[in-house]
Design a protein that fits this description.
This protein has 505 residues and is an all-alpha fold. Helix content is 73%, strand content 1%. This is Tripartite tricarboxylate transporter permease.
Length: 505
C-alpha cells in the first residue's frame, strides 16, 4: 500500500467520534496552556500521562499530539499581548508582535500568527506523512551497533539542544542515565541499586519522574519567585482580521518559515528555537520594509510562527520513525507510547499502522480545529491571562498529586514524586535543563541493551562499533549535534537577543 492509502486509513481512524473528541480536548487544552505564561505543552502532557493510563492508546496519543500543536499556537498570544515568551522559540514573536500590539495592531498580529501556524502545520504534516515511510525503510536495516549509535545521537542531541550550556545538558543526561540503571538487569536478572527496596525493583516510573520534574519542579520554582509587578496585557484593538497589505506581506513569510522550520525540526540537532531565529533573520533580509523591524514588522511574526509550528511536525519524523525525541514534549510523548507498551520506530509502522497513521491524520484535523478555535475565541484566551498565579499553580500541584495517586496508589511513589520535584526545582534554580533527565531514563535501558548485544556479537571489540558505515555516520552526526547548535546560537540567536534587550530598554 502507498502513502495515500495509509493516510486515508488514518483519516478513517482519526475521524471516529471518540478520536475527534480526544483531538478537540487536546487542541483546546494545548491552546489554553500555550496562552498561560510559564506553562508549556511538555508540562501539560506530563500531567496527563497518569490520567490517561487506562484510556485507549490511539485516543490518548491523538490528544497528546493535539496538545503539542495547540501549545505552539497558543504561545503566540502570550508573546504578542504580554511580551512574555513562554519558551525560547517565542522570543522573536514577542519582539515584533508586542510592538504591533502596542501600536494598536494586536489583532492582525494574532491573525497572521494563527493563519501562518495553520498553513505551516498543514504543509508540514503532509511532509511528515510522505517522509516518515522512507526513514522507516532505511531504519529497518539497523542492527545493534546502529541502534546504539542512534541512542548516542539522541543523548548528545538533547544535551546540546536544550539549555544554553552543553556541559549542563550532559550533566542532566547522566542524572537520567543513573536513574535508568536502577532495578532488575534485563539480561542477568540481578537487582541493581535497589537498596533492598521492593518498589525499586521495577525501576523508576517514567510517569512519576516526568510529572515531578515538569509540574512539581515548575510549581516550586514559580512559588519561590514571590510577588512581582504584574505584566501588562495589551488590549486587542480594532479588528482581528488582516488587511490586503497584511496578507500580501505575510504569505511569503508563511511559506518560507514552513520550509525552514520543517527540516530543522526533523534534524536531530534542530528545534523550534533555531528555526524561528533563522526565519526571523531570513525575513529581515528579504523584506522591503527593513526599517520596521524592531518596531513591529508583520513579517517578523508571520515567518517565525510558521517556522515554529512546522518544526513541531518535523520533530515527529524522528520520533515516530526512529524513536528519537528532539524536544521536551517529544520526550514526554515517547513516555506516553511506552506506557502502553509501544516503542516508536520502524517496527511500529509494521505492527501497528492504524495507530501511527491515525495519529498523523489527526494532526491534519487538529490544524483545522485550531484555526477555528484561535481566531473567533481570542477574547476567551486573553481572559486566561488574568488567572492569579497562586490559583493556577496550586491547581497544577493538586492535579499532579492526584494523577500520581490514581496511576500508582503508593506512599513510596508519592515520596518519589516529591523527591524528584525537589530535584527539578534545584535544576531550574541552577539553570540545568529538565528534558535530558527524562530522555536518559527512557532511552538508557535501550542503549544499554543494544550496546551489550553489539559487544557480544563483536566478542568485546569496541572498535567494531565504528566499522558499520551507518553507525559511523550517526556518531559523526552526534559530534555535529554538539557543534552546530553552538555555531547557530553564536551567529543568529545572539544578534536577535541583543536587539530584543535593546528594544526593551
Amino acid at each position: 500500500m502507498g502513502t495515500f492509502e495509509f493516510l486515508l486509513q488514518g483519516i478513517a481512524v482519526a475521524a471516529q467520534p471518540m478520536n475527534l473528541l480526544y483531538a478537540l480536548i487536546g487542541v483546546t487544552l494545548g491552546t489554553a496552556v500555550g496562552v498561560l505564561p510559564g506553562i508549556g505543552p511538555a508540562l501539560t502532557v506530563a500531567l496527563l500521562l497518569p490520567v490517561t493510563y487506562k484510556l485507549d492508546p490511539a485516543g490518548s496519543l491523538i490528544m497528546f499530539a493535539g496538545i503539542y500543536y495547540g501549545g505552539m499556537y497558543g504561545g503566540s498570544t502570550t508573546s504578542i499581548l504580554l511580551n512574555t515568551p513562554g519558551e525560547s522559540a517565542s522570543v522573536v514573536t514577542a519582539l515584533e508582535g508586542n510592538k504591533m500590539a502596542r501600536a494598536g495592531r494586536g489583532g492582525p498580529a494574532l491573525a497572521t500568527a494563527a493563519i501562518g501556524s495553520f498553513v505551516a502545520g498543514l504543509i508540514a504534516t503532509l511532509g511528515l506523512a510522505f517522509i516518515a515511510p522512507f526513514v522507516v525503510k532505511f531504519a529497518l536495516s539497523f542492527g545493534p551497533r546502529e541502534y546504539f549509535a542512534l541512542m548516542v545521537l539522541a543523548f548528545v542531541t538533547v544535551s546540546a539542544a536544550f539549555g544554553d550550556s552543553t556541559l549542563r545538558g550532559l550533566t542532566a543526561l547522566f542524572v537520567g542515565l543513573g536513574l535508568a540503571v536502577i532495578g532488575i538487569d534485563q539480561q542477568t536478572g540481578q537487582a541493581r541499586l535497589s537498596f533492598g527496596i521492593p518498589d525499586l525493583l521495577d525501576g523508576i516510573e517514567v510517569t512519576t519522574l516526568a510529572v515531578a520534574m515538569f509540574a512539581i519542579g515548575e510549581t516550586l520554582y514559580v512559588a519561590c519567585q514571590g510577588d512581582r509587578i504584574p505584566d501588562k496585557v495589551e488590549a486587542v484593538k480594532g479588528s482581528v482580521w488582516m488587511s490586503a497589505q497584511d496578507w500580501a506581506r505575510s504569505w511569503k513569510p508563511w511559506l518560507r518559515g514552513t520550509f525552514i522550520g520543517f527540516p530543522i525540526g526533523a534534524m536531530p540537532a534542530g528545534g523550534a528555537d533555531i528555526a524561528s531565529f533563522l526565519s526571523y533573520s531570513t525575513e529581515k533580509q528579504f523584506s522591503k520594509y527593513k526599517d520596521e523591524f524592531g518596531k513591529g514588522a508583520i513579517e517578523g511574526v508571520a515567518g517565525p510562527e510558521a517556522a515554529n509550528n512546522a518544526s513541531a511536525a518535523g520533530t515527529l519524523v524522528p520520533l515516530l520513525s526512529l524513536g528519537l525525541p528532539t524536544t521536551a514534549t517529544a520526550a514526554i510523548m515517547l513516555a506516553g507510547f511506552q506506557q502502553y507498551g509501544l516503542q516508536p520506530g520502524p517496527l511500529l509502522f509494521a505492527t501497528n499502522p492504524q495507530l501511527v497513521w491515525g495519529l498523523i491524520a489527526s494532526l491534519l484535523i487538529a490544524n483545522f480545529m485550531l484555526l477555528v478555535l484561535n481566531l473567533p475565541l481570542i477574547g476567551l484566551w486573553v481572559k486566561l491571562l488574568t488567572i492569579p498565579k497562586p490559583w493556577l499553580y496550586a491547581g497544577i500541584l493538586l492535579f499532579a498529586t492526584l494523577g500520581t495517586i490514581g496511576a500508582n496508589p503508593s506512599v513510596f511513589e508519592l515520596g518519589m514524586l516529591l523527591t524528584f520535584g525537589l530535584l527539578g526545582f534545584a535544576m531550574r534554580i541552577f539553570g540545568y535543563p529538565i528534558a535530558p533527565v527524562v530522555v536518559g531514563l527512557i532511552l538508557g535501558p535501550m542503549a544499554e541493551q543494544q550496546l551489550r548485544r553489539a559487544l557480544a556479537i563483536s566478542q568485546g571489540d569496541v572498535t567494531a562499533l565504528f566499522m558499520s558505515p551507518i553507525a559511523a555516520v550517526l556518531f559523526g552526526l552526534a559530534f555535529l549535534a554538539v557543534v552546530v547548535p553552538l555555531i547557530l546560537r553564536a551567529r543568529g540567536k545572539g544578534e536577535v537577543l541583543s536587539q530584543f534587550a535593546a528594544n526593551e530598554d
